[in-house]
Design brief:
The protein is of the alpha/beta class. The protein has a single domain, classed as Nucleotidyltransferase, domain 5. It is 49% helix and 14% strand. The chain contains 10 helices and 5 strands. Helix 6 crosses helix 8. The model has no long low-confidence stretch (mean pLDDT 96).
Length: 256
């Protein structure tokens, strides 16, 4: 069994905004301000429509057999097309179970639009049972199937009035939660050239997602006390072995 938890970070697609709003000559910062102001006028909030987001980081954890990994796809110079391609290549290669927090409401729709933009094929991901009958009743796209578990959606019993924030659930369970960075700071950090900080932040978010998922699997009875302890220990030993500052900070905020 292969299991990916994943998380993306995005910034305004200023190329789209510049074209759609006729803003040639304006800086990226000013185009983004115009996009968010227009959204505020039309919707009463400034969160952009999902097709107007550009992906700048995708982090994943990968659990298979006796190994656990966490990393961010590509490198600091990778363009959006490469990041999105790598994500769907992973699905194509491993057919993993996917785990997210609000992946059904945000991450996956954004990835759909960006894959469409960049001409990226993902037949395994889009399989509905036409070529593989196993996908007829368990695929990535149906809300109530298990090949993709959107923890926010499932734990809220598919009721948007019961949705919770990953950070708060992580802290409630004794996990680190967010460590000084959050999604509202990504655009300013990106403008300042802080793509590494964004990638590091994305990794800690996806680690929180994975740890919440382990507790969810324990609650479901798929892990017992010994299994859960072993999974936690594997995550800890992996992060200790990587010995990088943002993951060491994550470990320090996660009491044993």
């Amino acid at each position: 069994m292969h299991c990916f938890s994943f998380d993306i970070e995005t910034v305004p697609d200023v190329d789209f905004g510049r074209e759609a709003m006729g803003l040639d000559g304006l800086s990226d910062e000013d185009v983004a301000k115009a996009m968010t102001f227009k959204r505020l006028q039309s919707a009463g909030h400034d969160f952009l429509p999902l097709h107007q987001h550009r992906v700048v980081a995708i982090s994943v954890t990968f659990r298979t057999r006796d190994t656990f990994r966490v990393w961010t796809l590509g490198d600091e110079q990778s363009g959006e097309a490469e990041l999105v391609q790598r994500f769907f290549d992973g699905v194509e290669k491993y057919t993993p179970d996917l785990v997210s927090w609000n992946g059904g409401g945000f991450d996956l729709p954004v990835l759909h639009y960006r894959a469409l933009k960049h001409g990226i094929q993902a037949p395994r991901y889009w399989e509905h049972g036409d070529s593989d009958r196993d996908f007829k009743w368990n695929n990535y796209l149906s809300r109530y199937h298990w090949r993709h578990v959107d923890l926010m959606d499932v734990l809220a019993n598919f009721n948007n009035r019961a949705f919770a924030k990953l950070d708060e659930i992580a802290v409630m369970l004794g996990f680190p939660g967010k460590l000084g960075m959050d999604g509202s700071k990504v655009w300013d950090t990106f403008l300042a050239g802080g793509i590494k900080e964004i990638r590091d932040y994305c990794e800690t978010d996806v680690l929180n997602t994975w740890l919440v998922y382990l507790r969810f699997e324990y609650m479901r009875g798929n892990l017992d006390d010994k299994d859960l302890g072993r999974e936690y220990a594997l995550v800890r030993s992996t992060l200790e072995g990587m010995d990088v500052p943002h993951l060491n900070e994550f470990l320090a905020a996660w009491p044993e």
